[in-house]
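>> received
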Amino acid sequence: MNTEMITRPDLEVTKRHKLRNGVQKIGFLLAILAPLTFIIAGLGSKIGLWHWSFGLSKLSLKLGPLLLLLGLVFGIVGILLWFFVRPRKGIVLASIATIIPLLGLVQLGSAKSKVESLPYIHDITTNTQSPPVFSQAIIDARSADGATNTLDYVGKTDREGGTLVSVLQNKAYPEIRPVLRSEDKAVVFGEALSLVKQAGWDIVTEDANSGVIEATASTFWYGFKDDVVIQVRESEGGGTIVNMRSVSRVGQSDIGANARRLSALIDGLNQ
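>> returned
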């Protein structure tokens, strides 16, 4: 009887220690597993382990946030158990299990706000009245890749079908305009081609005579492909005018990627 009275409190303490340690370890594991899920989702899609829609919608938009939320819960509980269970141990694990998911959820919230603030378009051009057209080589490559976005521009509207893409672009990205240069066509063409090569895009067309450059840019995460066409022409008023266009192969929203790409080209040519 005396032995039971002595050991029972010890058993209760041991249980509390095991509970605290278990919660902290699970929280730490989730804190490591959640970011890995996003990394695996992006790289797995890029190298073809699964379709990009699975990597994005199932892993990045569903499983990843769920793991972050669970990790945050276990992290907070782990901190509470560290405070109430003596001797206090595991604050480092519990803190990591809380901070990483919290930062992840904040980042997701920021990304969501950014997506919602940008127009749902994926076709950007410096000339919304007469945008550069793509060659058959690009059209065939998009078809073989299973592209769901068309290359038609005139009359193209947003996903609700209520607003023209050209109107949305001019409102969101007023800086996307043709580049006017005083140098002759050959010089500007060479500079544009150099910028494309520096960007590391896959060049499809390089025709100095027609002044056309076509290339395909691939994103690091998920391997999304966007096609770019640059049109270098002699300007009627003298000098050279450059128009360009960048179109995503899949996805209704490019999250500003095509506009950033053209802005970089414009800045490079204006330097």
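>> The radius of gyration is 27 Å.
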